[in-house]
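Final report, section 2: Outcomes. Of the targets proposed, Hsp33 family molecular chaperone HslO is the one most frequently requested by collaborating groups, and we therefore present its record in full.
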Amino acid sequence: MTDAPITDWDDTVLPFQLDASDIRGRIARLDTALGGILEQHDYPPQVEALVAEMALLTALIGQTIKLRWKLSLQVQSKGPVRMIATDYYGPEKEGGPARIRGYASFDRDKLTDGAPIDQIGEGYFAVMIDQGKGMTPYQGIAPLVGGSLAKAAEAYFAQSEQLPTRFELSFGKSTEAGGEEHWRGGGVMLQHMPKASPFAAQGEGSGEVLQAEDLVQGDERENWNRANILLDTVDDLELIGPSLEPSGVLLRLFHEERPRVYDRQRVHFGCTCSEDRVRQSLSIYSAADIETMTTDEGEVTADCQFCGAHYVLDPKSVGFEAETS
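The predicted structure is given below as tokens.
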């Protein structure tokens, strides 16, 4: 355990293992990173909550990827919130921070007064991992089920990866003494690594979407259930902080499971957009195509959906027929 100041745990993910239960996990706290994602947009409250939940899931899941890899989570739905997309960029070097970004596409006129999850209709939850040049990207998809994005992520891991997984999240606007209202979030992820159940491996059973408990048997199921019962006792303030550091939360919840912690990963809000990337994306278009994109002011413009950056380009300088100086 470390003796870092409590506020020094903001925007970090702490990996851990429960030696007595053969379960591993992560505990995350997001503050400035979460604010950076949400402050770029004028989201209605329901959409803010969905993006905050997705960002926490991304930080917890993304911590496992390697240096310079990219993890993307995406929700596509037929509801008022059409899409939520988040990216997690692994550190550029050992000890460096990871970067996270996210945005949502929605129809403001169709939003209801219902709960945030009610703004998402039928659709799917997708996980994509980009391992870099020369490597085939990985993609897995599962239906949106369970009544929350966290439950949809659990179902994804059970169905697509056959890994029993549990998320416990808390997020919202926080006002600390002498400070301004801002977004904070925290969460715990548990994951068991057993062999899949015979029903999962052989394609038998009811045909329904797999749940975590379908994948564990015997002592493994007992260990998994016990860890989940302990996690049920966590409260929102323990998750969000900052009154108790994450290592203290783990000891309070799982002291009999012998928690072992590893190096924490810092997470910053960050975007990879640039003028060069915009030019590259436009390089497939002819001069005639570029002309259709040109504004009345004689400019080609582009906006980053993630960070709000605005790019203004000379139409003669973009496309595969661009003039060279």
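The mean pLDDT is 87.
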